[in-house]
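Practice problem 4.
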């Protein structure tokens, strides 16, 4: 693994001016490294220690360090690994030829390269899709699965077609590039207005990830993915779903889909939106630690 100083120098030399001026640094003692897996170079951060491993897969446009404030709550008992998904952070960008399950295979490749035994795998949003698909394809590998606000209801066919449409992809690429070129200070200020309850620390980490986010992630395939119900039927590890607040029929549907899991539990986090840990960190931590204690 490289030292933090080496990584900072490399990023300062290669990153955009906005990022180089405002680098997001991990807590002292965390290390980082790269592996070649599934055809790309994958970057990751690691808290270290001879402890059970938790891999945390971030959401779309985030990076591994976006888990920092949650990971710090768990480092006394766990070795946390925070990979940058392809096209995010310091990992290689995706291409148009990537398969729909590329990110699930990236996780599998990372685990093989780091020679991890029975890691706990956790994901948010896009990362939850990758983790769930990985756990379904390789049911004997994860010790447990934790999904932060995964999509439980079927994606509409029209949305799938639009996401794979060339015009829509190019429009999305232009939007990502425009945010790449925004100043760090502006991104922070805008998000503080939009989501003040996240707090400045969370938003400063989040802002850096937006500048690193690669426009080619717009090519990510969605239409060829199995439905959640199919994936859940193949997951055998104990599974916790930390879902955004929901009421009425939506809440019932979420519980119904979760019942497909062989060893699954869903906790709706009161007052939380899609970014559950950022909206209601303490409530999420309570449910998460109770689940981990029961493993």
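Answer key:
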């Amino acid at each position: 693994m490289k030292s933090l100083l080496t990584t900072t120098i490399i990023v300062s030399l290669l990153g955009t001016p906005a990022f180089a001026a405002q680098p997001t640094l991990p807590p002292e003692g965390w290390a980082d490294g790269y592996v070649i897996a599934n055809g790309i170079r994958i970057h990751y951060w690691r808290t270290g220690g001879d402890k059970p491993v938790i891999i945390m897969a971030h959401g779309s446009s985030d990076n591994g360090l976006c888990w920092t404030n949650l990971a710090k709550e768990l480092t006394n008992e766990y070795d946390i690994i925070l990979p940058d998904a392809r096209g995010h952070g310091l990992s290689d960008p995706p291409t148009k030829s990537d398969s729909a399950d590329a990110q699930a295979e990236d996780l599998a490749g990372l685990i093989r390269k780091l020679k991890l035994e029975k890691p706990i795998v956790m994901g948010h949003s896009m990362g939850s899709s990758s983790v769930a698909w990985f756990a379904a394809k390789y049911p004997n590998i994860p010790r447990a699965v934790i999904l932060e606000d995964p999509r439980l209801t079927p994606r509409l066919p029209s949305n799938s077609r639009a996401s794979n449409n060339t015009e829509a992809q190019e429009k999305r690429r232009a939007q990502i590039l425009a945010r790449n070129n925004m100043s760090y200070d502006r991104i922070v200020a805008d998000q503080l207005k939009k989501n003040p309850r996240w707090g400045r620390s969370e938003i400063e980490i989040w802002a850096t990830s937006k500048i690193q986010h690669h426009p080619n992630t717009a090519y990510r395939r969605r239409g060829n993915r199995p439905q959640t119900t199919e994936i859940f039927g193949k997951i055998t590890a104990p599974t916790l779903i930390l879902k955004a607040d929901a009421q009425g029929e939506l809440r019932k549907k979420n519980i119904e889909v979760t019942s497909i899991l062989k060893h699954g539990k869903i906790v709706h986090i009161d007052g939380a939106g899609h970014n559950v840990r950022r909206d209601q960190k303490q409530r999420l931590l309570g449910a998460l630690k109770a689940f981990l204690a029961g493993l």
